[in-house]
Please model this.
Amino acid sequence: MSRREDVVVIGAGIIGCAVSRELARRGAAVRMFEARTVGAGATQASAGMLAPYIEGHARGTLFELGLRSLAMYDEFLRTVSEDSELMVEYRRCGTLEVATDAASAERLRGMAEGEPLLQWLDRGEARSREAALATSIEGAVLAPGHGYVAVPPLMDALAWSALRHGVQIEAAHRVTGVRVDGAGVTITTDDGTSWSAGRAVIAAGSWAGFLEVNDPAAASVRPVRGQLLRLHWRGTPLSHIVWGPDCYVVPWQDRTVLVGATVEDVGFDERTTAAGVRDLLDAACELLPETWRATFIEARVGLRPATPDGLPFIGASTLSDRVIYATGHYRNGVLLAPLTASLIADLIIDGHEDPALAALRPGR
Ligand SMILES: Cc1cc2nc3c(=O)[nH]c(=O)nc-3n(C[C@H](O)[C@H](O)[C@H](O)COP(=O)(O)OP(=O)(O)OC[C@H]3O[C@@H](n4cnc5c(N)ncnc54)[C@H](O)[C@@H]3O)c2cc1C
Model:
């Protein structure tokens, strides 16, 4: 890079924060705009699971991206904690993906076969590793490399790390428009202020389509609501993330658990519902009957940014290479944050287009 870049990043969810921090770490001057507060979008509702073998059952591009990003997580967490001087709960405790009937047992056993990083466990083996599992289960696939990160503390640490690297954070500033002009871009915010920069990165999650950039790619991001519960666990201690057909349970070290998540097509409605809470509790009780003994802490809700083919939009807009998208991470934004940050920084700082970006092109 021959000169210090100026980049504006729109949106301070996990993607905007990770991208801003990485750009600043590599020498760019970055200003990040957030309509609400840092991490207040889909990110605050996330379960923080890092589970590419479950999310990428189809073993395609998403799976490859997930594996790549997971491999970056130890170093990502180490440097974020070091920069911020904040500890973040992060455990590679493994997942147990549970088969509850013969058909799912056959499918999951087949998936684990020939895959050295997965192990099929019959009912007895699965229950010997996780005694709280229902006696009715057929078995489970163990993925020992999977894990989770506690997202609220991660966001605090990430924001501090970004600040330490010089990122300017403009909270409560909604960006209304992005205009490409001769030397770069000009953005306007809802208080009528304009800001100029060399490039703009759109990390506005589900709301990317509201920005006036006239880019058809942005408009095809849509919100998919997810509700998630936090409970105080009072049963047999859990040592893995447990994933069933209708819910998953993530055990934190303070004996709280996260139970997620609904998948609902309800537009931009960010409310929790009685039906969502009931469905999650029913599903968790079926998988782990001792859920009945848990006490209720809270229900969270977030809008996952989804694209038509389920892959994120990462790369230059169809209009201009000065406007770059980093959105549409749907169910995997936490997992994919380190990789996304690195791909965007490679592109902006080094002018290097990673081959993975070919499948992630906005407007594809
Ligand atoms: C219930 C639930 C569970 C999940 N579990 C997992 C999981 O276990 N693992 C995983 O990897 N992922 C998970 N996800 C998905 C993950 O949370 C998302 O993929 C991720 O948070 C997306 O991050 P983001 O930064 O793109 O979007 P967001 O977090 O939504 O951030 C976008 C930000 O942009 C801001 N913004 C929007 N428009 C503007 C504007 N015009 N100007 C300024 N700011 C703007 C918003 O206010 C928001 O803060 C889960 C999601 C949900 C809802």
About this structure: Residues 15 and 337 are 6 Å apart (CA to CA). Residues 91-147+222-306 form a domain with the D-Amino Acid Oxidase; Chain A, domain 2 fold (CATH 3.30.9.10).
